[in-house]
Request: fold
Amino acid sequence: MRKVLKKSIFTASIAIILAFTLMFSVLGANFEHVAENLRDLGLFRGTETGFELDREPTRAEAVVMMIRFLGLEEAAQAGDADHPFTDVPAWASSYVAYAYELGLTTGATETEFRPNEVCTAQMFVTFMLRALGYDDAAGDFTFANAIPFGTQVGVIDSLLAEGTFLRDDMVAVAFLALNADPKDAEYDSLLEKLVSEGAVTLAAAAPILEFFATYAQLELIDDPFADETNIEMAVNMDIDMGILGSVSLTMNMAMIMEDADIVMKIDIVMKMGEDEIAMNIFVADGFVYTEIDGEKIKVDAGLADLDLESMLELTEMSDFTLNPIYFLTSLTKTTQDELTVFTMTFADSFVEAAMEAAVAMMGTAGVDADELAAMGNMEITVPSMRYYVDADGNLAKMGMVMRMVISEEGLTIPINMDFDIEIIAVGDDVVITPPDNLDEFELVEAED
Reply:
C-alpha cells in the first residue's frame, strides 16, 4: 500500500511553518486545482454553476463519481439497468440504476434513494474503496471502519475526515484514490487501471501519472529526523521586508539529547543593512549560556522537571495523518550539485492544514481557528518547498519560500522569506565542543 509522505519530514516542515503561523490568520481550504485535474481526466464535471466546492456533496453526486472511478460510465449510460426509486433525477438515473444492479448502493427505503441527502466522508470513502476493488460485502472492510481502513489504504487522512465533508474534500479524497493501489496488484495505481481499461485516455492521464511517479520517489527519501535526536544543522535565511529593508540570517545549531540531558549549541549572525548582530548560545547542565555584544549571562533553563520522553511524543503526529499530495499544484525533479532537488508548489490552503496538523501533533486540538485568526493581522502562504536528496537517498537539505502580508493601520507590508536548512550531521557524528570560558558567564535569575 502507498504510504503517507514520511511523518517526520512533513512534521519538520510544518513545525517550521507553525513557528510563523500559529499566532496569525490563515486561509480556507480550496482544492480547485484538484477539481481541475479530475475534470481534465473526465472524472469530475461540476455543475452548471461551476465546481461548487464549498458545499456538501449529495448521495447522487457520490454515486456518479463512483461509477466513473470504476470505469463504468459508458456501460452505465448505454445499459438498460433499472432501479425501484421514484425520486432519482434524470441526470443520475442511469448511474444509480447501474450501481444498484451491481449491488454497489442501496436506497434509503424500498422506493426512495434520497439523492439530495448529504454524502458523508464515511459514505464517499466506502465508494472509493469499492472503486479500488475492495468489497465490504466480502469482508474486506465494513462501513463502520471505512475511515480507518481508508486511511490505511491511503484514500483519506485526518484533515479530510474531520469536520463537515464538502465537495472540496470529496475531490481531494478522489485524487488520493487515484494514487492508491487497487486491490488487484496488477496495477500501481487506480489511475493506471482506468487508463488500461480505456476509461481515461493516456494523453489526459500522462501528466498526473508522472506527478504520482515523482511523488513516489519523494516518499522514498531516507529521513534523518526519523530516529535521531542528535542533529547538526545550518540555516541560511533571506528576508525582504519591502520598505523596511532586508535581513539575512545564518545559524548553526547542534543538539545532542540523551535521556534527561540536553546539550545544544547555537551560533547566530544577523545582518540588516550595515548592521550586524552575533549571538552565541550554549545549553548544558540545565543552564543556558548566552553571549551577545560581549555580554555573557547564564540562566536556569528550567529543564529539571522536563519530561523529555513526553516532549518527544509531542513531535509525533500520533493517529493524526496528513497527506500533502492534494495540496501540491506542481512537483518537479531536477539536479543541482550532485543532489536531486524535489520542488513542490502548494495551494494557499496548505498553511491552514499545516497549522491544524501541528496543533493536533502538540495535543492542543482545543485551539479554535477563529481565536487564532483574531490574534493577528498577517496572512501567510508557502508557495514552495524544496527537498535536496543525496545519491544515497538521504535528505541533505530543506528549503522553503514563505510570503507574508502584514496589514496595520492602513499600511500593507509584504514580506518574502527564502531559507535553506542544511543537515550537517546526525546521530553519533554530532559533536559539540563547549565554550572554554563558561566561568565568565554571570548568573541571572530568570523572571517569572
Observations:
- Residues 202-219 form the longest helix (18 residues).
- Residues 238 and 248 are 5 Å apart (CA to CA).
- The chain has 14 helices and twelve strands.
